[in-house]
Amino acid sequence: MIPYGRQSISEEDIKSVEAVLRSDFLTQGPVVPAFEQALALRVGASFATAVNSATSALHIACLALGVGHGDEVWTSANSFVASSNCALYCGATVDFVDIDPETLCMSPCALGIKLQERRDGGLPPPKVVIPVHFGGQSCDMASIQKLSIEFGFRVIEDASHAIGAEHEGRPVGSCHFSDMAVFSFHPVKIVTTAEGGAILTQNAELHSRVQRLRTHGITRETKLMEEVDPDPWYYEQKDLGLNYRMTELQAALGLSQMSRLDGFVARRQELAADYDLALVGRCGTQTVPSFTKSARHLYPIRVPKNLRKEIFESLRHAGIGVNVHYIPIYWHPFYRAMGFTRGMCPEAERYYAEAISLPLYADLTVSDQSYVIDKVKKCIPV
Predict the structure, then answer these.
(1) One-character DSSP codes across 195-252
(2) Which of 177, 163, 378, 156 is nearest to 279 (CA)?
(3) pLDDT digits (tens, 9 = 90+) for 292-348
(4) Which of 16, 60, 121, 203 has the fewest Cβ atoms surrounding its Cβ within 10 A?
(5) What is the DSSP letter of 132?
(6) 75 near 94, Cβ under 8 Å?
(7) Rounded to an integer, what distance in angstroms lies between the CA atom of residue 263 and that of residue 146?
(8) Are residues 91 and 207 in the same domain?
């Protein structure tokens, strides 16, 4: 089976992890901060905090912004459930914004209309908006930032798909247009740490908060303690935090992988270009605006909705591990029980009805991609 995505592990990666296994530190040692420094340097952020998953990163990013009971968080309907679950973990409520039919990312137009409707009704804006950079393609963050200034909300970029991407010449993760950004390092992502995630920010105070929150809310920094002249072993719990730490083993893998990030992204872009050329006129694809650079985490196509299941099953039967990204979050029974109903984000629903993700990963061979293209052409004649 040709998977829709998979990790690329080199001998250097294996040696890096083996070196940690032979060292004095397996959990918290020098490699985690080295990985964080490499991340921050690569994207131009001042600070990076590595954690055990992107879900954990989203959770403590919300906590760091003070999200809690009585607050509301908005995110894209076209995403994995973690993009909204993070708000619920904090006791907040969630709502969803429709997507742009071309980029498949959160629509600034839809967001602006929704915000204005709230204002006209005398209601406050959400506390936080979480745009999702779907498939490696950045949302229009410049427009979303303008709305955040006008209406008064904070922004967390869910950049789980988008390390190596750019928006208006700035790397995704630089947080030029947001308070924080979150990366994922799951095996199907562009860079992997097996499981893992990170929070990027330019804000020293937010960085300090997420650093504490990932480690039980504990600090060993004397300047933050209430105790005067503390003993050298002393520490204090300042917040109700969690154990969301990344291990040295994960960080070693991630640090090794970061040296190949540019190559990973370049190869994904080559493969996507080959798909574009081969499938033009047969199916819809995700638009990449000229002012952005997509990291190409996914290659989604759009097919006639009445044929989608047939095409999906035919490709799976041919040994091609196609997938669908994503079921609109509010369609899930858990969210329906909250009162969400179908029809609230028509573009996201229209896209879902037509979506199939084709295999795309750095180690996808020319022959395997050619096989995929041949099978897709047979399923979707011109």
Answers:
(1) S-EEEEES-HHHHHHHHHHTBTTEE--GGG-SSSS--TT--EE-S---B-BPPHHHHH
(2) 378
(3) 999 999 999 999 999 999 999 999 999 999 999 999 999 999 999 999 999 999 999
(4) 121
(5) B
(6) yes
(7) 33
(8) yes
Q: What is the 3-state secondary structure (H, E, C) of 147-168?
A: HHHHHCCEEEEECCCCCCCEEC
The reply to whether 42 and 154 lie within a common domain is yes
142-to-96, 157, 180, 354 alpha-carbon distances in Å: 20, 12, 14, 29
| Residues 197, 276 within the same domain | no
Q: Are 284 and 346 part of one and the same domain? A: yes
Quote the mean pLDDT of the chain.
Answer: 97
Residues 149 and 241 grouped into a single domain: yes
Three-state DSSP class for residue 134: helix
pLDDT at position 228 is 85
Q: Mention every residue, 6+ apart, whose C-beta is less than 8 A from residue 256.
A: 10, 12, 13, 15, 16, 17
Q: Which domain holds residue 214?
A: 2-258
Instruction: Specify the amino acid at residue 316.
Output: R
pTM score, whole prediction: 0.97
| Residue 155: closest CA among 47, 65, 40 | 65
**What CA–CA distance (Å, rounded) separates 130 from 315?**
33
**Shared domain check, 51 and 78:** yes
Three-state DSSP at 22 gives coil
Q: In CATH, what number is assigned to the domain containing residue 158?
A: 3.40.640.10
What phi and psi, each to the nearest 5 degrees, are found at residue 341?
Answer: -130, 160
Select from 258, 287, 303 the last residue of a domain.
258
Q: Which pair of structure tokens corresponds to residue 213?
A: 């929150």
Q: Which of 258, 273, 297 is the last residue of a domain?
A: 258
Q: What would the pLDDT profile of 100-121 be if each residue is shown by its tens digit?
A: 999 999 999 999 999 999 999 9
Q: How many structural domains are present in the chain?
A: 2
Do 371 and 339 belong to one domain? yes
Residues 220 and 73 in one domain: yes
First-to-last C-alpha distance (Å) of the chain: 26
